[in-house]
Amino acid sequence: MHEKPPYGMISILFFGAFVALLNNTLLNIALPSIMTEFSVKPSQAQWLTTGYMLVNGIMIPASAFFIQKFTNRKLFITAMILFTLGTAAAIFAPNFGLLVAARMLQASGSALMMPLLMNVMLAAFPIEKRGTAMGVFGLVMFTAPAIGPTLSGWIVEHYSWRTLFVIILPFAIITIIFALFKFRNITPNREVSLDFFSLVLSSIGFGGLLYGFSSAGDQGWDAPIVYGTIIIGAISLIAFIVRQLKMKDPMLDFRIYKHPMFALASAISIVLSIAMFSGMILTPLYVQEVRGISPFHSGILMLPGAIVMGIMSPITGRLFDKYGARTLAITGLAITVVTTFYLSRLSVDSGYYYLMMIYTVRMFGMSMVTMPIMTNGLNQLPMHSNPHGTAMNNTLQQVSGAIGSALLLTVMTKRMEKSGAELAQSAAAAGQLPTDPAAIATMQEELGKQAMLDGINFSFFVATIIAIVALIMTFFVKRVMPPKFKTENNATEENMEQNKGTAQD
User: Fold this and answer.
1) For 233, what's the count of Cα atoms within 13 Å in the CB-facing half-sphere?
2) For the chain, how many structural domains are there in total?
3) Distance in angstroms (rounded) separating the CA atoms of residues 53 and 113
4) What family, per the record (predicted)?
5) Is residue 189 domain-shared with residue 199, that is, in the same domain?
6) How many C-beta atoms lie closer than 10 Å to residue 221's C-beta?
7) 3-state SS string over 413-461?
């Protein structure tokens, strides 16, 4: 444990992760513009987000190996170079397929940044100060969502969406230059070997599940490519888990789930990710496609929520150090459930400031859950398990977010199609179908908006139920005490490990 944390190096890590996260949040507002330029449906456009998370889901399980095998310096510089190459490729992508490929190249680099940053912080700060440290981490990370949508909205309104990548590129290059001169290794390295069969199994497992769920909106759940890839993915994932449990030096150690609070934290994070990622995609769709609000004002609408998350992050970090995760998580998820329900009751003329308020309060609720729950779970792990714990958390968050987004977008699409058909039949039965071509086009546009609204509302209702599940689970959270309180009676390290499940509400 370092007596004085390496703040300079952590700052470079923060900046690299910030650039990667900003890149991701910039794209959410731009999705409708990209859909228009390349003539793709929402279920196809989501691959810009899902494909990014898919690669994260494949790469992050191997991050525990990379962090133990290679130095911080080599790993971070390599990750930033891959991210920079992907950014450059996205600027010049001539079609939608190559744009998705460029995004996936970006993801191959960014996937390693978050686990690397979290491992450095776990090694640099004592356990009783991790809440505050993670809170500062959250403040930096939530600045990107605060800037991203608004900046993206203004750019998309005045320039091409490609400008989003042009802005990111110089910052990525600057990060590489700083890392070349200032980066050093602080986490321990050891000789580990990568089991390539495990890597293949995890890639097929996570990739199959993500592809299957993501394709359902386009192909339908009864399509062989959909249920076939889901089945193959599930079987591969089970085989991967069984293999890891049998290995002496696994690629991803599932034995960390013997620690109950880490297991519970993972379960809550999975459920919360599904609800959170869906909101980040559905809200811009409603604002721009149903309400016809400009991309810039769409970004402004989401700005206060992101600012609130940034402000609250260090505050919740300090509250976590003092009171633990349970009270914070229950309060935050109760707020999230109520506000998500209100988002399921939108109309075609819901007020702009009303929507801004609901979205902001929802983000306020989520700011009280994510970091405290994750930190509480990691606090229960022994130091040597930190690379596996951070890799597991990041993997599950990305994969569950991707599957949740795909699932809820599929729910939206299917509900939209059903509602559109019913509205058209009702209009025909009532003899309200116009004969003038202009009037027909206007009516089709209005029916399309009404159908999309119904689909979005239904998806938010499903997200409400998902958030309720997370809320119920938080009642079982117990506070993990820092080891220093357990060593006061000269307890041995073995006894410390046995007692790590001891809790205090």
Assistant:
1) 21
2) 2
3) 14
4) Belongs to the major facilitator superfamily. EmrB family.
5) no
6) 14
7) HHHHHHHHHHHHHHHHHCCCCCCCHHHHHHHHHHHHHHHHHHHHHHHHH
C-alpha dihedral (218, 219, 225, 228), degrees to nearest 10: 100
pLDDT tens digits along 101-156: 999 999 888 888 878 887 777 777 776 676 777 777 777 666 676 677 777 778 88
**328 and 469, same domain (yes or no):** yes
Q: Is 149 in the same domain as 245?
A: no
Task: Give one DSSP letter per residue of 66-88, joined into a string.
Answer: HHHHS-HHHHHHHHHHHHHHHHH
Cα-to-chain-centroid distance, residue 241: 23
Structural tokens at position 358 = 């609901």
Q: Could you tell me if 90 and 212 are in contact, meaning their C-beta atoms sit under 8 angstroms apart?
A: no
Same domain, 218 and 278: no
440 and 332 within one domain: yes
Which among 209, 229, 250 is the end of a domain?
Answer: 250
Pairing of strands 479-480, 503-504: antiparallel
Please give the single-letter amino acid code of residue 246: K
Report the alpha-carbon distance of residue 133 to residue 167 in Å, rounded. 29
Together in a domain, 241 and 316: no
Q: What is the domain range of residue 212?
A: 195-250
| 108 and 208 within one domain | no
pLDDT digits (tens, 9 = 90+) for 239-271: 999 998 888 888 888 888 888 888 999 999 888
Q: What is the pLDDT of residue 3?
A: 56
Is residue 332 one of the residues assigned to a domain? yes
Confidence of residue 332 (pLDDT cuts 50, 70, 90): very high
